[in-house]
Amino acid sequence: MNLNPNMSRLFKFTPVLILALTLFSCDDNDLMDQQTDFSTVPDAPDTSDAERIEKDNGLVIYIIEEGDGEFKASDRDQVLIRYTMRSLSNGEMEIHDSTWANDETSPTELNLATAIFGVRQGMQGMREGGERVLIIPPELAYEGQDEEFADDTLHFHVELEQVLDN
Hints:
The longest helix is centred in the first third of the chain and has 21 residues. About 14% of the residues have low confidence. Strands 1, 2, 3, 4, 5, 6 and 7 form a 7-stranded antiparallel beta sheet that branches. The chain has a domain of 113 residues: Roll (Chitinase A, domain 3). The chain is an alpha+beta fold. A hairpin with a 2-residue loop joins β3 and β4. It is built from 3 helices and 7 strands. Helix content is 20%, strand content 30%.
């Protein structure tokens, strides 16, 4: 079937037009109402029997699982991790971010050289397969930055899946 040039152009731009109309039909309130589902995030691990290391700068490291992987993380490695970031808010631990959110099962890639200092220092020497809880004071996290939890002590539950570069 031969279409005249005007009809041909119309068919080419129809998908773009539909996408634009869909995007413009959503107002900001629709996007704001979409919340992250943390119901699939595992509970924070019990640290009562874990090895506890306290650094001079206030960082506390609980070693839940030592790990048995061949490689250990250094402060400049690219790694695959699963994590949950919590902070104490109104007397309860509140989840701010997690790789398990929205029923996700995949780890995320992290460049330790660009991570907040508490995570970078807390993961040093961690073996693949290891699991730690890092209690990070504000001065080792987002202090001085325009973050909603800049004054909070953060609780990171971290599982190291793989060190990607050595």
